[in-house]
TrEMBL record:
GO terms for molecular function: oxidoreductase activity, acting on a sulfur group of donors, disulfide as acceptor. PANTHER family: GAMMA-INTERFERON INDUCIBLE LYSOSOMAL THIOL REDUCTASE GILT (PTHR13234), GAMMA-INTERFERON-INDUCIBLE LYSOSOMAL THIOL REDUCTASE-LIKE PROTEIN (PTHR13234:SF71). It comes from the Eukaryota. This is Putative gamma-interferon inducible lysosomal thiol reductase. Keywords: Glycoprotein, Membrane, Transmembrane, Transmembrane helix. InterPro entries: Interferon-induced_GILT. It holds the Pfam family GILT. The chain crosses the membrane at residues 7-25.
Length: 237
């Protein structure tokens, strides 16, 4: 009877170990599935959607927008559609009264700047004007409201009051919260700011950040014949 009891205990321990191993393995598989990015292959001739997950006061974000994104657009605007997502590695807290509090990597000034960017992106429908405004503001965003008014004047924005109303009220915070939710759905998760997606895929970030034009042309070439503009000399950071 004594040996039989020991045997039963051993069998029970083995069963428990098997169950634990299976649960851990199942969790591992689920995590792996979550981390797989979805890359959408689009028909030839359709612009590549460039998703820019950035921060308004981030030096690397500034460098990418000014040196890569704006230059690529100016060289071949027909190749890309731009989706700006200002948030980066910020965090969002919903207070008991329903109001929102943000914590940003470069301080509260960046949170303010991110909200202004979010409102600008939301209100301005013209993609060229939207890019010009973001590029202008991100060059010198240390005083976000001054940067907005300066850039609105330089670009002859006729919806400046609407944007100002947005960032001065609760709607701007709601927009930033939505950008945060979108940022948090990135798979793989954001490790570097900016993170840039091409048609939803992250590909090799170092190559995209160094030469966006070349990587956009690679995506287009994967669909079919690349346009003549892709034969031009690629950009360098």
């Amino acid at each position: 009877m004594h040996l039989s009891g020991i045997t039963r205990i051993r069998v029970l321990v083995i069963i428990v170990c098997i169950v634990i191993f299976w649960l851990l393995f199942k969790q591992f598989l689920e995590n792996q599935a979550v981390e797989v990015e979805e890359i959408v292959i689009k028909p030839s001739g359709v612009p590549v959607v460039v998703g820019v997950y950035y921060e308004a006061l981030c030096p690397d974000s500034k460098h990418f927008v000014v040196k890569q994104l704006k230059t690529t657009h100016d060289l071949a605007p027909q190749l890309i559609d731009i989706d700006f997502i200002p948030y980066g590695k910020a965090s969002t807290e919903v207070k008991p009264d329903g109001s929102l509090k943000f914590t940003c990597q470069h301080g509260q000034i960046e949170c303010e700047a991110n909200i202004i960017h979010a409102c600008t992106i939301d209100v301005i429908s013209d993609p060229d004007l939207r890019l010009n405004m973001v590029t202008c503001m991100i060059r010198d965003n240390i005083m976000p409201k001054d940067a907005f008014h300066r850039c609105a004047k330089e670009n002859n924005i006729d919806v400046a009051e609407k944007i100002q109303k947005c960032y001065s009220g609760p709607h701007g915070a709601e927009l930033l919260k939505l950008h945060g939710e979108k940022t948090n759905t990135l798979r793989p998760r954001m490790e570097f700011v900016p993170t840039v997606t091409l048609d939803g895929g992250q590909y090799k970030q170092a190559l995209i950040l160094k030469n966006l034009f070349k990587e956009v042309c690679k995506v287009i070439a994967g669909r079919g014949p690349a346009p003549d503009v892709c034969a031009k000399e690629s950009l360098t950071a």
